[in-house]
From TrEMBL:
Organism: Stenotrophomonas mori
Domain of life: Bacteria
CAAX prenyl protease 2/Lysostaphin resistance protein A-like domain mapped to chain residues: 169-267
Annotated PANTHER family: CAAX AMINO TERMINAL PROTEASE FAMILY PROTEIN (PTHR36435:SF1), SLR1288 PROTEIN (PTHR36435)
Pfam families found in the cross-reference section: Rce1-like (PF02517)
Keyword field: Hydrolase, Membrane, Metalloprotease, Protease, Transmembrane, Transmembrane helix
GO terms, molecular function: metallopeptidase activity
Keyword Transmembrane: yes
Protein name stated in the entry: CPBP family intramembrane metalloprotease
Length: 278
């Protein structure tokens, strides 16, 4: 009796929805524009809410001390801490992903049924583990090669991760391993990649959504990284984005990409905790 291989399927899944009318590249650009506007708007609102809350707490602390609030204290409220930054990211990026999914790329009943069927296939999780391992090996190789060339980038979110690890380790694990992979895959793979996949241009979708994924994780000017360091981070993040999009297409379920992404983040957290390696 022949035992089926967990990686037996050789054909990728069908596109998530029928090809839309109009230019898929323009549609992709519109999705990116809408995501940018929503992300900036929600981030601004969250920042404003945090400022109001912080100002309120400064006033409360002054009242408890029996002092009149010092107006100068309100002008130096500081930056949001690790917990506030994670919550802002959850609301802003997660809200953007959910809004665009519901507005632009909502799954049909047939798609949800196909995804449930894919989840029950052993091959889905074989591919998931294979891609997660490949992403880890590829990222490690890129880091090693960069180090040989004297290029050692520092991820923009490293200080946030270190502070969150010291003060909110449980929430950091939940955020990095469960929440962030879910809303990032919903936005970058389901919405952005899915549009070009449905239009019959999956490889272009992988490249463009991978580029968007890389850019949002390392925006020039937001860190001390130079051009070479930024290029290396873009290569790593872009490769991850392409790999997760390929996995989504191969298995036919976004859950595979979410799990692979979560595994990658879990490995990164473990390396930071046990090896001190960002």
């Amino acid at each position: 009796m022949t035992v089926p291989s967990p990686l037996r399927p050789s054909r990728p899944a069908s596109p998530p929805v029928p090809a839309p009318t109009g230019s898929p590249v323009l549609g992709f650009g519109l999705d990116v524009l809408l995501a940018t506007v929503l992300l900036m708007g929600l981030s601004l609102l969250c920042g404003l809410f945090w400022g109001l809350w912080r100002g309120f707490m400064v006033g409360v602390e002054a009242a408890r001390a029996g002092q009149a609030p010092d107006v100068s204290a309100f002008s130096t409220l500081g930056q949001p801490g690790a917990l506030a930054q994670m919550l802002i990211a959850l609301v802003a990026t997660g809200g953007t992903a959910l809004a665009l999914y519901l507005w632009r790329r909502r799954a049909t009943p047939a798609e949800r049924a196909a995804s449930r069927h894919a989840v029950r296939r052993g091959s889905t999780w074989g591919w998931t583990l294979l891609v997660a391992a490949g992403v880890f090996v590829g990222s490690s190789l890129a880091g090693w090669l960069g180090k040989q060339l004297g290029v050692e980038p520092v991820p923009t979110n490293l200080s946030l991760m270190e502070e969150a690890l010291a003060r909110y380790p449980v929430f950091l694990v939940v955020f990095a391993v469960l929440l962030a992979p879910a809303y990032e895959e919903l936005l970058f793979r389901r919405v952005l990649f899915g549009r070009l996949w449905a239009a019959g241009r999956p490889w272009l979708g992988m490249l463009l959504s991978g580029a968007a994924f890389a850019f949002i994780h390392e925006i020039p000017g937001t860190s001390a990284n130079g051009p070479a360091e930024i290029a290396q981070l873009w290569l790593v993040y872009g490769g991850m984005g392409i790999a997760f999009a390929w996995l989504y297409r191969r298995t036919g379920t976004l859950w595979a990409a979410i799990v692979a992404h979560g595994l990658n983040n879990a490995i990164a957290l473990a390396a930071l905790v046990f090896l001190g390696v960002p």
